[in-house]
Task: structure prediction
Amino acid sequence: MGGLRKLATSFVAPGPCGVAVRDRLKHLTPQDEKVLQAVGAHQGALASRDLKARCADGLEHGADTWAARKRELTGASSSRIAGAITKATHDQWALARRCQAAHIRQLDAGIRTLRHRLSLPLGEKGTRRTAGGYRSKNEWFRKSRRLAALEDRHTAAVAEWQAGRVRVVRGGKRLLNTRHHLAQARLTEDEWRQRWEAERWFIAADGESGKRFGNETIRVTPDGKVSIKLPAPLAHLANTRNGRYTLTARIAFAHRGAEWADRITANRAVAYRIHLDTERGRWYLTASWQRPAIQTIPLETARARGMIGVDTNADHFAAYRLDRHGNPVGEPHRFGYDLSGTTTHRDAQIRHALTRLINWAKRVGVAAIGIEDLDFTAEKTREKHGGRKRFRQLISGMPTARLKARLVSMAAEHGLSIVAVDPAYTSLWGAQHWQKPLTTPHRKMSRHDAAGIAIGRRALGHPVRRRTAPPPHDQSDRAGHRTAQAAPGTRGREGTRPPTTDRPPGEPPPNGKRKREPSASNTVRDAPSTHQWVQDSLMCTG
Result:
């Protein structure tokens, strides 16, 4: 075991601490849409201006500059709207800062790998953990050029990080780049412009506990009536008193509607966001709120009723049920999904597969699901897997972070816990110790099914390897070694049998005599070695 890395301890993943539900704003009148567009464009312009000011402040930002920006926005909107805009600006700047740090770490990893491989002789083979040398002089030369390019990018990124300069695009960088590929995206310039402006609109408000229905800016009553506090320059568009505009549409949250109604009835904080889906031409309202973090159950409690081990793959979940002793029960289950197509399609596929997995877990009566704590950040580098393009595309296409967040959230709603385990060697050891023994003419075990068993056993606290087999017949090595050898210096079951005496070990027998005399020899093999065998002369006569 000296060459294996130390495994991380399994743990129960903490539950979700936030909730978001969405409903469509149906039957809006042309006047309603006109008001929503005006409010979104006005507040979106304020948000863009505030983000520009925040990025210009860089690391010099403080409480004074924040207060000054909020005062400036208050005159063009309201105090609550200004607070929502500045908070969204800070969240966006902080996200860009984290992405910048991740980019620098990725460049560091690429530079280290390139330097290591360039320092090796041509054609030198690598190991499972480190890459080897390059195959030819041409490849070595091209990689040396790439090293120089990465070092240039790293120097520029570090300089921007130290100066506090970030790059942020309101509306999204992907949509911005689509402007140069309209034919490929099958969009006209007017359609792109409409999407671009809609993505930059800002119609959102943070909740306030103690205020009527939990939000003073965007107010939703228990019967579904939606009203908006208009900014000061748009107050003339109000159709009710106090500068508010009430929409004709009514909303009714089908999911978590009772929980949402309880919150607004008690005047607890609920945040709202209104946005336009330009592809469908529909308006939506999203409500979100925080709730106390769900207390995770102890690990022993999660293991009490067994476990379902889940192996995550590019196109399916391979799951196997195990009892609390780590024994596989029943047949392997596979829940497929398709990660091609649009983001919406991929999300729907993941949700559908997770729903089927959770429903099966509820039917069999387990309390927890074991899953690998996957993180492919270090494995996605082009320098490490440059020649394995399909492999890089495979691990890059697996939505590990989103999958874990969805699984934890959906499982918590059904009273299930998620046990995260170290993913090291699960596929290797699962195939080695479980794939062949469980394969029958009526059960086809794949490597992924066996990995699910390995994950489940690790989540239960058992070793992945199967139980040690007893020595066959009378010798431990006649039919091969044990399936799991004892560690050096640990004799245990393979030690010598203690003598059948009633005295402590090492004490001489009383009167110098044994308590039990040896039995007489009954076989030729047990005969004393001093016995002289004489051939009978009658056997030689013919």
Notes: The longest strand covers residues 282-290. The mean pLDDT is 82. The two ends are 66 Å apart (CA to CA). DSSP finds 14 helices and 13 strands in the chain.
